[in-house]
Amino acid sequence: MIVSWQPVVLVDIFGSVFSLLIGFWSIGYSWSWYREKADDAFRHYLFLLTIAIATFTISRSFGHIVKQFLLMSGDKGLWQEIAPFSGAVNTATFIVIFAFGVYFDRIRQIKQKADQDALGLATARARADAAFDSEERIRAVFDGLEDAIYLVDGDYQILFFNRRLQDLLPDIGIGQKCHQALFGNEQPCEDCRFHCLRTGDHFSYETEMELIAKRVSLTGIRLPWVGGDEVNMAVMRDISEQKRLEAQLLQSQKMEAVGTLAGGIAHDFNNLLTAITGYSDLMLLKLAQESPLRSDVSEIRRAAGRAATLVRQLLAFSRKQKAAFSNVDINDLIRNMQKMLGRLIGEDISMEMQLAVQNLPVLADPGQIEQVVVNLVVNGRDAMPAGGKIVISTEKVVIDESYCSLSAKVVSGCFVLLSIRDEGDGMDNELMGKVFEPFYTTKEVGKGSGLGLAVVYGIVDQHGGCIDIKSEVGQGTVFNVYLPLHDGADGLKHKKEDDGVAPGAGELILLVEDQEEVQRVAIAMLEGNGYQVCTAASLAEAEEVFAREKDKIDLLFSDIVLPDGSGIVLEEIFRASRPGLPVLMSSGYADEKMQWTLIQKKNLPFLQKPYSLEALLKAVQLALAGSGG
Amino acid sequence: MRLTKQVLGVGRLIVLLLFFILVAVPAHAVQVHGGIEGLVIHQIGHILFAGVMLFLLILGLKNHWCGAGWGRFRCFLKLIIVWNILTFTGHWLRLVIDDGKFVRLAGKTVGFRIESFVDAVFYLASLDHLILLPALICLAVALRQWKIATEDNR
């Protein structure tokens, strides 16, 4: 059977052409696949294998195409010359393919192993990165804390510490003993109980860090640690500022308590002094001018006057003295006092004024502020017996919240700072803590009452301000008085009192006074000067008298603090029944019970105890004349 | 395990060396390589080519090579083995086929006389591109799938 050779030729030609194309195609894919990861050994290998196979394909296909071309063109001889070369190339590629193929699996295994190793490395690196990130996060948390934290092992060696501790102790390092690095102790600290803690136990104590001059609270905790070990963690908090504020609060509370005590005593004293003063005045009226007793009674009267002054100072310290607030420019006030202050300090001491250029208005009682300035200047003078300089300065300052914590009455905002600086011996911390206490003095006996700075403290506090001292031994002292800056509204105005006292003309005065001795002396003084007096010792009793003598009473003269109510309530009741009834209020002190603010608001005439005969008669006269109320 | 692999590796080299020593004609610097030598070497090449492809095929089956491209690659291996066998057979048969079996017209072969099974096998072997072309297509497709899989993974 003869079959056509044409299919063989056609398959050979087309097969070679397509093989040639696919060979190049394969090389292209292999190359691009290999290039995507050129460091991949397996890809490199497969690329070379593909190159070998494709080379064979191209070589063979090219040879067969040439063969068919030469045979068809009748040049069989040339083909017979080329054929060995074509066949040899094909054979060589077979050998190369074999050589590559033999190591195919080996290289594949190496590749797998390398991939596994790479994966293992990547996993390990990821774990390490995660651990690092975790540690970084934990460290960030610890470093963000305000408290200093450190970990120590059983031998007190530091294993870890946060940034706060490093801020406090820049030289601290891992491996140092905590008692040495933090406290400078060769042995573990006495209060430390790390050595006897069990897991979960803790202890706390406060101690001084002398290395950095701070007071700290320290809490120690035993914690489980990595690898089944245990570790001690210490949390250390700087409480220096807290302790300082606590001490200041304690001092402030102590001053408040002393003030309350002084105010109470002053109240009783005023009642007694009213009786002493009043009876002295009555005796002086009754005694003949040539009487030898007259000088004795005058001494009693003067002593009572000095006692009244002391009581007023006590009241000033205890913030229970009545104050008449008005809009005062501190600079003007001080300028007006300059001449008087110059005389006060004497020739050995110079005085320098450094007053702010702008006005510094405060809502204050000018008299009391003058007393503050005088007391502080006198204090400065007394601190410089050999002479020196006193500097008075004013400026506008802003006080922040932290400073306000020093005083419950001070709120943050704009303040007038009045500073009085001397060049005296200065004070140590202990002395500075006591200077505002009443009756505390460093002066010789009889040279100072010990009330000067206490009065300053009381007045400044009553004005919603505060005072601090800056002083060092041998470096002089600065008293800084802070008073709230006022926005300019006018304060309360005072009435001017008229001079001259005239006796009564039989006017009936309802005297409401619960203190018997005061009542008696008031009756004596009023009746001895032309007035009629009916008395009551309480609000209820006064109401009964008023109901009975309603139309006859010309004046209500009442103590403000009564056992069953207030003189102001009495005034309201009586005036509801008899509008325009003249009234006169009196009291021994001016605390909340006395309701000084309400008295000012209602513009009621007021007579401060202890009062003299002259003061009483003048007040009664003014009240009857209707100049108040 | 490592030792076994090393032994196997050395073993392959020894087999190769023995093969060339025993089968190949001793070579000298001035030796002439004529006659049937070229065909023998070429046939050896086919054997090596087919052998290594078979080797890879067995390894693939044994180690369960799978995933994109490996199926086509196995197909390539099978086809290229068949092609090697076919062409190997064709080369040997050409030696025994009488030139008279080729029908020539004006010096060109236009037909072939199939008078025996050997003649038929030779004729079929001459159509080897019918096997080679699909084998190469499988290889190209395998390479393409590997490339695509790499891109997808990325």
Question: What are the defining features of this structure?
Answer:
heterodimer; A: 629 residues; alpha/beta; Beta-Lactamase; Helix Hairpins; five-stranded antiparallel beta sheet; five-stranded mixed beta sheet; 18 helices; 20 strands; 51% helix; rod-shaped; B: 154 residues; mainly alpha; 2 strands
What does this structure look like?
- The complex is a heterodimer of chains A (629) and B (154).
- By secondary structure, chain A is an alpha/beta fold.
- Chain A has five domains: 6-102; 145-238, PAS domain (Beta-Lactamase, 2-Layer Sandwich); 244-317, Helix Hairpins, CATH 1.10.287; 326-484, Heat Shock Protein 90 (2-Layer Sandwich), CATH 3.30.565.10; 508-624, Response regulator (Rossmann fold, 3-Layer(aba) Sandwich).
- Helix content of chain A is 51%, strand content 19%.
- Chain A contains 18 helices and 20 strands.
- In chain A, helix 2 (41-72) runs antiparallel to helix 3 (76-102) and helix 2 packs antiparallel against helix 4 (104-144).
- Chain A is rod-shaped.
- Chain A starts with a strand and ends in a 5-residue tail after the last helix.
- By secondary structure, chain B is mostly helical.
- Chain B has one domain (37-153).
- In chain B, 71% of the residues lie in helices and 6% in strands.
- Chain B has five helices and two strands; from the N terminus they run αααββαα.
- In chain B, helix 2 (37-62) runs antiparallel to helix 3, helix 3 packs across helix 4 and helix 3 packs antiparallel against helix 5 (129-153).
- Mean pLDDT of chain B is 80; it is low at 25-29.
- Chains A and B meet through strand 1, helix 1, helix 2, helix 3 and helix 4 of A and helix 1, helix 2, strand 2 and helix 5 of B.
- Strand 1 (2-4) of chain A pairs antiparallel with strand 2 of chain B, so a sheet runs across the interface.
